Amino acid sequence: MDLDIYFRKGPLIPAIVIDAADGEVLMxxxxxxxxxxxxxxxxxxWFYSRSRQALWNKGATSGHVxxxxxxxxxxxxxxxxxxxxxxxxACHTGNRSCFFKPLLPPGIEPHQNGKEDDLS
Amino acid sequence: MDLDIYFRKGPLIPAIVIDAADGEVLMxxxxxxxxxxxxxxxxxxWFYSRSRQALWNKGATSGHVxxxxxxxxxxxxxxxxxxxxxxxxACHTGNRSCFFKPLLPPGIEPHQNGKEDDLS
Lengths: 120, 120
What we know:
The first copy, chain A, is mostly beta strands. Helices cover 8% and strands 34% of the residues of chain A.
């Protein structure tokens, strides 16, 4: 399999990880060519830690591993979408998903134009 | 609202866009501080195009706009998750989602080691 197409723009590609059970977005992390190859080889997610500059087998220490169900590339081959069976919480904080900090919570209109929405 | 926390690691933050109707991941694009501010101000997604080095109002030419429903930041403030009401397909190819190119389709075991998984 030619993995080079995913690293044309740079050495790292962002990988969105979603729960195979319900499609919830769990986290985003980065892969280099080696971590993508190891993910494909082992069937569990491997990433590249930008801060530690090292490969990182998700869940290796916490036990919260991610078994890969599918991987899709996007239209221009610069992002991956990885469907996983997640063991335990995906986030190191203990949250199921890393996306728990509302910047704009649902129901708050970003534009204060008084328009009422009726999209339940 | 202090947007600076999202740009501590660099001038661009990846934004995962999901469909508010069913949670499907539609695309990933990048925001700079100005495009995030415009997104919050207008209630529609604005991104920063790395190739054109310019702000980009999603759907401005195609009509396939994205009305923002919610925005969440992740645990370490370096990724955004944006829930939208998508008009038309999100992908410029005409696909609903940009993630339509299987690298590892579901049902194909990445590791050919004969191990049976039992993680339901």
